[in-house]
């Protein structure tokens, strides 16, 4: 029987090699087809401009604050001290990079005239948006896990108040669109809270935190159902056995039930959080410059929709793929224990 299984048709190395070859041929054919389609469009591709949306060198003009003449330019290493002396013998000194000086000695300058240029490297709009997306997603994931865990436990609680509260929250959040919830958080709750804070001269809450709250509460409702299903998937005898050994219900839930449930809910949790990372693209509607809004602003100023939207999609793919790999790493670690 073992010999028969080894000679089973279509399951050897040749079988695997053949279908891998088919996959790569299909992949390269799709990529070539996409490239060919882009060449048929009457569009000038400017991929060389893309790095400027990540990091660029900005020129900052250093202007004169007084009217007068340039009385001296003294070099100090890579910089130079430019002295402007006015009619009343008042003087101002400006430290400017030597390569950025735009005046000479004895030149006459007026208020607002450019004396020199300072060059600084700054993050571009795409990189800024990517950082905001990472920040929002990371914070929202943490709060969603905490909220979902406690709500999931309340959902299966014997306490009617906790159970009904959890059911109400879950059904209310899952039954309404995320975009509508963002509008409510920003335009309704945000306005009310900030107006109350303004009355007491307290700093107002930035829109970013209302966006994080909307994402965390939305994802928390789904996490709660995933947690509930994971806990209920553990056989009831596990709890009964733990209780028969003298463990309290809290101790048994923490050390017996939840570790087993977590192994089972990890894949659906990963899927939920990957969806939440992509859902963060909706935050642009409440004036948060995340990755999608940053890309939209870049497109409106550069008129390069194809390159920038391809880049935006690629960055979301990198984020979600990296998170997926991290979850797979956690799964392997838990299996080894």
Automatic annotation (TrEMBL):
GO molecular function terms attached to this record: transmembrane transporter activity
A biological process term (GO) from this entry: amino acid transport
Keywords, alphabetical: Amino-acid transport, Cell membrane, Membrane, Transmembrane, Transmembrane helix, Transport
UniProt keyword Membrane present: yes
InterPro entries reported for this sequence: AA_ABC_transptr_permease_3TM (IPR010065), ArtM/GltK/GlnP/TcyL/YhdX-like (IPR043429), MetI-like (IPR000515), MetI-like_sf (IPR035906)
GO CC terms, sorted: ATP-binding cassette (ABC) transporter complex
PROSITE patterns: ABC_TM1
Domain ABC transmembrane type-1: 130-327
Superkingdom of source: Bacteria
Protein's cellular compartments: Cell inner membrane; Cell membrane
Record's bilayer topology term: Multi-pass membrane protein
Pfam family for this entry, one: BPD_transp_1
Record-annotated membrane-spanning stretches: 17-37, 130-154, 166-188, 208-227, 308-330
Record Gene3D superfamilies: MetI-like (1.10.3720.10)
Function text: Part of the binding-protein-dependent transport system for glutamine; probably responsible for the translocation of the substrate across the membrane.
UniProt family annotation: Belongs to the binding-protein-dependent transport system permease family. HisMQ subfamily.
Name of protein: Putative glutamine transport system permease protein GlnP
């Amino acid at each position: 029987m073992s010999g028969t299984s080894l000679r089973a048709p279509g399951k050897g190395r040749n079988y695997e090699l053949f279908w891998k070859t088919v996959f790569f041929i299909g992949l390269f054919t799709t990529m070539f087809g996409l490239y060919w389609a882009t060449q048929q469009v009457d569009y000038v591709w400017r991929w060389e401009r893309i790095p400027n949306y990540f990091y660029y060198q900005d020129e900052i003009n250093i202007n004169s604050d007084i009217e007068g003449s340039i009385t001296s330019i003294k070099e100090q290493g890579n910089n130079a001290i430019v002295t402007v002396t006015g009619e009343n013998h008042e003087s101002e000194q400006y430290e400017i990079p030597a390569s950025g000086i735009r005046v000479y000695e004895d030149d006459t300058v007026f208020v607002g005239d450019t004396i020199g240029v300072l060059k600084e490297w700054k993050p571009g709009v795409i990189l800024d948006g990517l950082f905001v997306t990472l920040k929002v997603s990371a914070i929202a994931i943490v709060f969603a896990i905490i909220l979902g865990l406690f709500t999931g436990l309340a959902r299966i609680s014997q306490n009617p108040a906790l159970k009904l509260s959890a059911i109400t929250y879950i059904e209310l959040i899952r039954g309404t669109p995320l975009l509508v919830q963002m509008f409510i958080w920003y335009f309704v709750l945000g306005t009310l809270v900030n107006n109350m804070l303004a009355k007491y001269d307290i700093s107002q809450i930035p829109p970013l935190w209302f966006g994080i709250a909307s994402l965390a509460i939305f994802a928390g409702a789904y996490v709660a159902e995933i947690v509930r299903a994971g806990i209920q998937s553990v056989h009831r005898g596990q709890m009964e056995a733990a209780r028969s050994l003298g463990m309290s219900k809290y101790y048994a839930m923490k050390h017996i039930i939840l570790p087993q449930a977590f192994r089972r809910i990890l894949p659906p949790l990963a899927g939920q959080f990957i969806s939440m990372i992509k859902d963060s693209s909706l935050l642009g509607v409440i004036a948060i410059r995340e990755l999608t809004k940053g890309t939209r602003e870049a497109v409106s100023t550069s008129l390069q929709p194809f390159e920038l939207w391809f880049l935006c999609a690629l960055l979301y793919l990198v984020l979600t793929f990296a998170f997926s790999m991290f979850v797979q790493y956690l799964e392997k670690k838990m299996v080894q224990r």
